[in-house]
Amino acid sequence: MRTKKNLIALCLAALLTSALAPEAAAQQRPRPQQIAQNGPRAGGGSGGKATASDKVQAKVLVVHATEDGKYIDPKLKNLERHLQHLKYSSYRVMTQESVALTKDESEKVSVEGGWDVNITLLSTSGDKARFRVRVSSKKGNLADITVAVARGRTFVVSGPKYNGGILLIPITATF
Amino acid sequence: MSYATEQELSRIDALLMRVLDEEATSDERQELLALADADTRLAELTELRTQLREAVFAWSDDAVEVVGAVMAALQVDDGWDALSDGLRAAFAVEALAEDTFDISELVMAAVAAPTVAAEEPPPEAVFSALHDGELSAERRVEMARELGRDRGALSALNDYADIGRLIREGLDDEARHADLTPVWRGVAPAIGLSDPEEIPGWAPIADAVRDAVAAASVMSAAESAALTNTVMDGIPKPIRELEHADELDELVNPSDLRGWIVRLIGPAAILALGLMLVIPQLWQVPEKDSIEPTPPVAENVQQDDAIEPMSDGAFADAGSGMKVESLETADNVFVQVMQFDDDGPLFLMIDDVDEPSAPDDGASL
Predict the structure, then answer these.
(1) Which of A120-124, A125-129, B341-345, B351-355 is the least confident region?
(2) Three-class DSSP category at B190
(3) Above 50 in pLDDT, residue B193?
(4) Do A21 and B278 touch (CB under 8 A)?
(5) What is the pLDDT of residues A47-102, one digit of tens each?
(6) Which residues in chain A touch residue B313, judged by CB atoms under 8 angstroms apart?
(7) pTM, 2 dp
(8) Helices then strands (H, E): number in chain B?
C-alpha cells in the first residue's frame, strides 16, 4: 500500500515536470529572431572586445583565368597543382589585398564583372574559422555560403565572366 | 588323259608371265614348253602349240593373245568353270532330246553357289539379340553360362540397357502429348454409343459402391468413432508425443504468466513513463539546433533578397578541414562545390544563368 502511494506521487511529479519542461527548454534555446539580431555565437564565446588573437587575416586574390596561352602567376604557385584540374591554362593575378576580420566583422571586395564578394568572419574555434560569403551582382544577391576553413587553407569563389574568361577569387585564412 | 595339276598350272601361269615380261630364261622357256606338252588338252591343239613355241622363243606383239589362248586351253580357273559346265551339260541334254529347251534352269542349277557354312555372327550382334529377346531359350541358357565368365559381355549388355533407356527418355520428351478426349467424344456417337462416358458393364459395380456408401452413412456414433480410430491408428505419427505434458502445463500456466507480467513489466513501464515525462529529450526527436554547437547561418540570412536555400551541408569533408555548412542561392544561380585533392582548395563555382553570355562558358570546368 505504501508502495502504491509512492508510485502515484512519482507519476504526479513527473506530470508537473513535463508540463514545465518544454518552456524551460524553449528558454534555453536561442530563437531565430535573436540570432538575426545578435548574430551567431562565436566559437570562443568571449562576447567582449576582440583581441589580437581573435583577428583572422584573409588574403583575397582576384585571378583572371583564361584559355589563352599557358601561364601561372608566381603568386599562385601553391595553387598551381590544383588549378590544373580546371580547363583554363592561364592564371593572372589582377588584384591582391589582405583584410583583417574579427568576429562578425565584414569586408566587401569588389571585383571586375560587377560582382561584390562580402566576407564575414562568423567565428574561430581552434584552428578553424567560419566565414560567411555573400556574392552579389547588380541584380542582387546571388549566393550566401557559410564555409568552415582550417588555418592556412584556401577556398576559391569563382564565377564572374570577364574578358574571355572568368574570375577566380581565392581566399586564404591565416590566424 | 593327263591334265596339269594345280601346282603345274600355277607354274605355267608364272612362266607365261615371265615370258610376257621378257624376263624368262632359256631354261624357264624350256620348262614352260615341257609343261604345256605334258597336258593333253594343249597337246591336242597343234596350231596353238606352234604359236606358243614361237611366242616363247621369238617374242612378238601377238604373244599376249597366245598366252591367253594357252591359259584358256589349260582351263585355268577364271571363275566361269561352273557356267561352262552348265552349258556343256545343257548342250548334252539338247543333243539327247533334240527339242527346244530353256537352258537357264540347268545353268543356274549348275552355277548355284556352293553351300557356305553359316558364319557365326559377331559377339555384339549376339549380345544385342539377347538383349532384345530374339534368341531361343536354349541359346539364352547357353549365353547365360558364358556371360558369367565374360565381364566384357556383361558391360556390353549394361551399355545396351543404358542406350535403350536414353532412347526411351528421348522419345518421351520429344513425343507430343495429345489430349484425345475430344476425339473420343466425336468417335463415340459415330460408332453408335449414345453416351460417350458410358462404360459398358460398369452399372452393377456402381450400384454396389452406392450401396456401400449408403450403409456407411447410417453408422452409429460408436461405429463411426471406431472407424475413425482405426484410420488414425494407421497413420504414422511424425511428431513425438510429449512425455511430460504436466510439466509443460506448469511452465505455461496463464495465471502465473500474468503474475510475472504484473511484477516485472508493470514497474518497468511506470518507471520508463516517469523518466519520459521528466526528461522529454529522451523521447523527443532531437532538433537540428540541438545537434549543432552553433545555430546555422541560414537563420541569419536576410530573406528580402529572394535567396532560397538549396541544401544545408551541400559539401562537407571533415578529412580536408574544409566544410560548407550552408549554401543558399538566388533563382537561376547554381553553385558547384568541388575539391579535387584533400590538401587542395575548396572551389565554389557560382554560375549565374541570367548573366549575359560571354565568349567563355562561365564557371563550368
Answers:
(1) B351-355
(2) helix
(3) yes
(4) yes
(5) 445 555 568 889 999 999 999 999 999 999 888 888 988 889 999 999 998 888 99
(6) none
(7) 0.36
(8) 17, 5
CA–CA separation, B327 and B308 (whole Å): 9
A149 touches chain B (CB under 8 A): yes
Collect all residues of chain A within an 8 Å Cβ-Cβ radius of residue B308: none
Q: Which of A60, A87, A49 is nearest to A149 (CA)?
A: A60
Average pLDDT over chain B, rounded to an integer: 68
Task: Dump pLDDT digits (tens) for B55-102.
Answer: 777 766 667 777 777 777 766 555 555 555 666 665 565 555 555 555
Contact B359 A32 (CB under 8 A): no
**A43 at B interface, C-beta within 8 A:** yes
Q: Does B342 touch chain A (CB under 8 A)?
A: no
| B 99-128 residues with CB < 8 A to A | none
Residue predicted with more confidence, B329 or B259: B329
What is the rounded average pLDDT of the residues A124-153? 89
Mutate to test the interface with B, among A166, A174, A175 (most CBs of B within 10 A): A166
Q: Which of B278, B297, B327 sits opposite A14 (nearest CB)?
A: B278
CB A56 within 8 A of CB A138: no
The answer on pLDDT for A112 being more than 90 is no
CB B365 within 8 A of CB B347: no
Q: How buried is B326 (Cβ within 10 angstroms: 0-12 exposed, 13-18 middle, 19+ buried)? A: buried
Query: Within 13 A of B361's CA, how many CA atoms are on the CB side?
Result: 4
Q: Are A103 and A124 in contact (CB under 8 A)?
A: yes
The set of cell numbers assigned to B202 is 460398369
Q: Per-residue confidence at B314, pLDDT binned at 50, 70, 90?
A: very low
Q: Does A29 touch chain B (CB under 8 A)?
A: yes
Residue boundaries of the structural domains of chain A: 2-38, 52-174
Using CA atoms, how far apart are residues B299 and A144, in angstroms rounded to an integer? 12
| B151 grid coordinates | 565381364
Q: Which residues contact residue A24 at a Cβ distance below 8 angstroms, ignoring those fewer than 6 apart?
A: none
In which band, very low, low, confident or very high, does the pLDDT at B237 lie, cut at 50, 70 and 90? low
Give the residue on B whose Cα is nearest the Cα of A114: B355
* Cβ neighbours of B330 in A, within 8 Å: 140-143
Domain residue ranges of chain B, discontinuous segments joined by +: 6-73, 81-110, 123-174, 254-284, 294-352
pLDDT at residue B108, rounded to an integer: 65
Residues of A in contact with B298 (CB under 8 A): 146
Q: Which of A30, A35, A159 comes nearest B350 by C-beta?
A: A159
